[in-house]
Amino acid sequence: MATHMKFRIRALLSVGAIGLALAPNAAFAASRAAPIADLPFTTPAGITVTSLGEVRGKDGILRVGNNRKTTDIYADSRGMTLYTYDKDVEPGKSTCDGECAAAWPAAVPVAAAKATGAWSLTPRADGTKQWAYYGKPVYTFAKDEQPGDKKGSVENTAWKVLSVKAPETTAYPFGITLRDLPDAGGQVLVDSDGKALYAYSGDLKQERAACYAMPCGSNWIVLAAPAITKAVGEFSVAIRPDGSRQWAFRGRPLYRFSGDMLGEDVNGSGVDKRWQPALVARYPVPAEVKIVSTPSNGKIFAAADGKTLYRYSFYQRVQSSDDLRAGPYVTAIGQALGTRACEAECLKAWRPLAAPTNAQPSWHWTILTREDGTRQWAYRGHALYTYVEDKKPGDLMGLNSWDIAVNDKDLHTVSVLAKISADNQLPSAFYWTTAYP
């Protein structure tokens, strides 16, 4: 008979032990930054993003595969997969009613939901409204049972899973593309190397007048436009004071920031308010959450009072660009654990991030209901908490608190919450870590 060893480790890194003070200009709320207030959201209220794949089998076992490359798809407020129908060829008009509508319920808006960006509301024959994505009506499938299911795409090839993709509303000049940059708070224009571009809101003649000292100064690199190029979509050419040409987006000249070393960097954000990431669409962020910068963990989520937000997750021994921020998200794990990761005694140390009664899920933000009926915010499937030993904004006293369980018969990790079968990913453990964009 196999024996099990279970123990708990508090690994206090030096930065966590002493607490962290936020650097000047480090904190910002991506969804409320003034220069992007008029930008559309990536999703409206009630439309979320999840990942395809099994969350928990009928045998109760949560399986974690080696392949971390998952497909992000759109889902409704419950996390159920959304589909489009090939036979809906007229924009804004659904051809699925009667028996079809019983099998493929229309994706209906939650209370007070508004159209934004690619998402519009289209009327149905019965007088109700239905979500449409780029004019294509959107549906759920009655036989899908849990988040991540895609049974509808198997039964009928005319129905397609609605995968997350870049906006289709504009053309791009050569060397400029669009990518998701969570630290910037949305979908951002990037150069040919995949690095963030920044839009300048000031007068080109005054470009250096108030930006001569480091880290501003010469760190802003002009995104030059070829001599014979013409305007493309929402891109135009700005003529600089010296007569050279520079790409501009929606009337704002574009720059690179020399301090961005990696594709996910947006280190130019906050250096000078005139330069902001060149966002095309912004992520929704709950009013109860803000994004702050830390010296050791980069940008992370914090509660409205500045206290660090944590998630309970499963450690996998894999290399990732997210390692500095305590490892990547695996949405399926967070969804499977739900609120069960912290109950009873656990709640004395870890406080759930409450979601107001009128709050609605959107993008990667979902709402879980605890046993006592209270609502709790979750991000990428993981319930969020603050830690009682964090006394001031920037403290990371809860970082790297581990739950490790070893089954010495088959070396599979065993927990009171779930049994994990994780090939080639030992050692494995549950632990508390920061929540980041």
Fold and architecture overview:
By secondary structure, the chain is mainly β. The chain has 3 domains: 4-29 and 286-434, no CATH class; 72-162, no CATH class; 177-282, no CATH class. It has 4 helices and 28 strands. Strands 1, 21, 22, 23, 24, 25, 26 and 28 form an 8-stranded antiparallel sheet that branches. The protein is flat and about 65 Å long.
Classify the secondary structure makeup into a structural class. Answer: mainly beta
Distance between the termini: 44 Å
Strand count, sense and barrel status of the largest sheet are: 8 strands, antiparallel
Q: Count up the domains.
A: 3
Strand residue content? 25-35%
Number of helices: 4
Helical proportion, percent range:
under 10%
> What does the average pLDDT come to?
79
Shape verdict: flat
Gyration radius, in Å: 23 Å
- Low-confidence blocks of residues: 1-35, 318-324, 405-427
User: Care to count the β-strands?
Assistant: 28
Fold topology:
Elements: E1 4-10, H1 14-18, E2 48-51, E3 62-63, E4 72-75, E5 83-85, H2 99-103, E6 119-123, E7 129-133, E8 136-137, H3 151-155, E9 159-161, E10 177-181, E11 186-190, E12 198-200, E13 220-222, E14 235-239, E15 245-249, E16 252-257, E17 275-277, E18 279-282, E19 289-294, E20 298-303, E21 310-315, H4 331-337, E22 350-352, E23 365-369, E24 375-379, E25 382-387, E26 401-407, E27 420-421, E28 429-434
Parallel strand pairs: 3-27
Antiparallel strand pairs: 1-26, 2-4, 5-9, 6-7, 7-8, 10-11, 11-18, 12-16, 12-17, 13-16, 14-15, 15-16, 19-20, 21-25, 21-28, 22-25, 23-24, 24-25, 26-28
